[in-house]
């Protein structure tokens, strides 16, 4: 195992053992639940958006180390980002973990820089069954952001 792989593994284990922003956010402007029926992982994600910027985000739930660490790192990286930036991070992260990352070296480097610590999940693409684990909280986040953006619960929109 390379030093970088070991660093990424310890980063994932750290976020699993001591998840950041692991709490309910009572003043949220958006909320969504994500479930993986194949393994039973379940996460609730709350987001506070003000003037198009994520001012706070949190999550609660249970799941494997990959899903909990992904949710924890997600919450730390999106605080202070605009809704547009969050959507861009979701797209880059999803491309990375599904193995559809950019092919040109400059684009790969740019994507890794944009993702920061989330690059720890690059190896997930080699294990397709784990992609759902890594992206579960992200999908819930995107639903919560949509709810916050239009001020109406996602299930109440027509």
Describe the 3D structure.
The chain is an alpha+beta fold and 158 residues long. Helices cover 49% and strands 17% of the residues. The chain has a single domain, classed as Sufe protein. Chain: A, CATH 3.90.1010.10. The chain has helices at 3-17, 65-78, 83-97, 105-115, 128-150, and strands at 30-36, 41-50, 53-62. A 3-stranded antiparallel β-sheet has the order 1-2-3, covered by helices on one side. α1 (3-17) packs across α2 (65-78) and α3 (83-97) runs antiparallel to α5 (128-150). The longest helix is centred in the C-terminal third of the chain and has 23 residues, at 128-150. The model is unreliable at 152-158 (pLDDT under 50).
Layout of strands and helices, then pairs:
Layout: H1 3-17, E1 30-36, E2 41-50, E3 53-62, H2 65-78, H3 83-97, H4 105-115, H5 128-150
Antiparallel strand pairs: 1-2, 2-3
Helix pairs in contact: 1-2, 2-5, 3-5
């Amino acid at each position: 195992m390379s030093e970088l792989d070991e660093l990424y593994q310890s980063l994932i284990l750290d976020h699993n053992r001591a998840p950041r922003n692991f709490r309910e956010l009572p003043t949220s402007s958006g909320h969504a639940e994500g479930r993986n029926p194949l393994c039973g992982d379940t996460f609730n994600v709350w987001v506070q958006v003000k003037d198009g910027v994520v001012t706070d985000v949190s999550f609660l739930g249970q799941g494997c180390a990959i899903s909990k660490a992904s949710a924890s790192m997600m919450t730390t990286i999106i605080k202070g980002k605009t809704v547009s930036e969050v959507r861009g991070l979701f797209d880059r992260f999803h491309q990375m973990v599904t193995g559809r990352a950019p092919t040109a070296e400059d684009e790969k480097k740019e994507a890794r820089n944009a993702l920061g610590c989330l690059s720890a999940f690059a190896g997930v693409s080699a294990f397709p069954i784990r992609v759902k684990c890594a992206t579960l909280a992200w999908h819930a986040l995107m639903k919560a952001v949509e709810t916050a953006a239009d001020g109406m619960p996602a299930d109440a929109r027509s």
